[in-house]
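User: I'll paste a sequence; please echo it back and then give the predicted structure.

Assistant: Echoing your sequence first, then the prediction.
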Amino acid sequence: MRNTIFDEDKLLVKAAGTPSKDKPRFDWAQGLGDNRFEVPKVRITDGAGDRDFHIAEVAEVIGEALTNLMISREENEIYTPKNRELVVESARIVADRLIERMAEEEEGGAPRLSFDELYRLIEKALVENDAYDVAKSLVFCRSNDGGAISDDHMVDQIRLIRRSGQVVPWNAAKIEVAVRKAFLSLQTDSQPAVELARQVTRKALSTG
């Protein structure tokens, strides 16, 4: 048992930053079996355009976050029935949310999701399953691979001094990630992080 959340987070950062080739790999999508749930046709939007979405991707994303969490805790038993069940159940919740979203589409076409939207759906599914620690691991994974952190979120008027003394541009997305991690550490839904990050950025801008 680690003494503080800060210590746990440092280990989680290390695990998330470890190259995939140096970590155990598991077929988390296999747990879905032949029944991949009733998932509507969904398109994922990325920098290269749109592509088809498959629910197996959700299982793999959750499995990766779960693997990183177990590694950070020095747990050797990762691909357990309990963990596989968590992955499957969370993927089912995501599928249900996508079905609800499609029902709300006025034109009845295939809904389009950005990677950020998809990851937030996955995070919410994990929170619904009381898997706050896995949800936080997911946020670490996403921020580590550059997700949600782009030049579009930079605020040129503000500079931030890191603890190391390095001066860097203010990045609203990184503020959101930090707030999101804090909520999840307290086992609380991190949805307010989006608006809180906006308010912090507005406050920083108002100070000149």
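The longest strand covers residues 154-161. Helices lie at 5-17, 55-72, 81-104, 115-128, 132-144, 172-185, 193-206.
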